[in-house]
Design brief:
With about 350 residues, the chain is mainly beta. The chain folds into 2 domains: about 15-235, Oxidoreductase, molybdopterin-binding domain (Sulfite Oxidase, Chain A, domain 2, Alpha-Beta Complex); about 240-355, Sandwich (Immunoglobulin-like). It is about 10% helix and about 35% strand. It is built from 5 helices and 22 strands. The chain has helices at about 15-25, 75-80, 125-130, 165, 215-220, and strands spanning about 60-65, 70-75, 85-90, 115-125, 140-150, 155-160, 170-175, 180, 190, 205-210, 225, 230-235, 240-245, 250, 260, 265-270, 280-285, 290-295, 295, 305-315, 315-325, 350-355. A 6-stranded mixed β-sheet has the order 14-15-22-21-17-18, with no helix packed on it. Strands 2-1-10-5-6 form a 5-stranded mixed β-sheet. The longest helix is centred in the first third of the chain and has 9 residues, at about 15-25. The radius of gyration is 21 Å and the shape is globular. Mean pLDDT is about 95; it is low at about 1-10.
Length: about 350
């Protein structure tokens, strides 16, 4: 488990360590939800260790392990394999952590750790087919070039996937039509549709086919749902459904409370799920007492968020706005957050405080 915090900021309960994390990582400004494709500089960002310095001229992607034909590919060779592009949404597994009570100590995300980019690169399935996994292959391990210490364990950042899920992955070398920015994994990263962001290994340098389950830190310890007893539970995998609203009106600088005129307004937002396409979004303008259906935009893609809109005649006074998503598999956001020790997968319905009129 993570070490206990060394010190806190007086009166806030936020540790110095958390502030250092928050200073190097960043969330999506909620007003940027207006963009169907998130500009690269506004997409949420989490960097586990340091951004490695990678020379693209000498870079190689190694494919090995339980395969018949190990491969070693340059970026030029990867680009020659054919380009696949798709808008894909992913969200940090710790999104919503800072809203839990008691609050887990880690990167203090509220609700904005999300983004949708058009990721482009080489499809992973043909590469695996060419390498020829053994008959006993069950997982694929992805290793990045970023190295650090976590839970007292020195490690390269690496995570594995069941082979069926890995075959759906994309070896991305472009983000929104341009080479990956350094902070987003230049020159190569993994993108896995539907999974939380921790699975999208950046600075990808090695793919290893396994005949036994991977027992490294990020799979066995780091990204699991712990109860209060600190016993590792189920692994964190696919994104739970969530809807977020473009905050209406204008904000108070410190509190971010929204101010607008008492008049008709169209509320908009985006919703997503890693299990299935979004089927319904409902909006509440009375703090969650009642919900009404919003109108959905056409899908942006099978693995991307979906826009929605809702017409509201804002009355004078204070209101709490909420939006709730349901996917085609029947998964719906809860009104109250599901607590766990590390603060993962908190997809509780949002709350936006607004004041209409003076």
């Amino acid at each position: 488990m993570d070490a206990a915090p060394a010190g806190t900021v007086a009166g806030q309960g936020i540790t110095e360590e958390e502030l250092r994390l928050a200073a190097r990582n960043h969330a999506l400004p909620l007003e940027a939800l207006r963009h169907p494709i998130t500009p690269a500089g506004l997409h949420y960002l989490l960097i586990h260790y340091d951004i490695p310095d990678v020379d693209p001229a000498t870079f190689r992607l190694e494919v090995g392990g339980a395969v018949e034909r190990p491969l070693s590919l340059s970026l030029t060779e990867l680009r020659a394999r054919g380009r696949v592009a798709e808008p894909i949404t992913f969200e940090c597994a710790g999104n919503g952590r800072a809203l839990l009570e008691p609050r887990p100590v880690s990167q203090p995300w509220l609700t904005e750790a999300v983004g949708t980019a058009e990721w482009a690169g080489a499809a992973l399935r043909p590469l695996l087919d060419e390498a020829g996994p053994s008959a006993g292959a069950i997982e694929v391990l992805f290793t990045g070039l970023d190295r650090g210490v976590e839970g007292g364990v020195p490690q390269w950042y690496e995570r594995s996937l069941p082979i069926a899920d890995a075959e759906l992955g994309l070896l991305a070398y472009e983000m929104n039509g341009a080479p990956l920015p350094p902070q987003h994994g230049f020159p190569l990263r993994l993108v896995v549709p539907g999974w939380y962001g921790m699975q999208n290994v950046k600075w990808l340098t090695r793919i290893t086919v396994l005949e036994e389950p991977f027992t490294g830190f990020q799979n066995a310890v780091g990204y699991r749902l712990y109860g209060a007893d600190a016993v590792p539970g189920e692994p964190v995998t696919r994104m739970q459904p969530r809807s977020l609203m473009v905050p209406p009106g204008v904000p108070d600088f410190m509190t971010r409370e929204r101010h607008l005129e008492p008049a008709p307004v169209t509320l908009t937002g985006r919703a997503w799920s890693g299990h299935a396409q979004i089927e319904r979004v409902e909006v509440s303008t009375d703090g969650g007492e009642t919900f009404a259906a919003a109108d959905l935009d056409a899908p942006l893609g099978p693995h991307a968020w979906r826009g929605w809109r809702f017409d509201w005649d804002a009355p004078p006074g204070e209101q709490v706005l909420r939006s709730r998503a349901t996917d085609a598999a029947g998964n719906t956001q809860p009104l109250e957050p599901p607590w766990n020790l590390k603060g993962y997968a908190n997809n509780a319905v949002e709350r936006i405080q607004v004041v209409a009129g003076s």
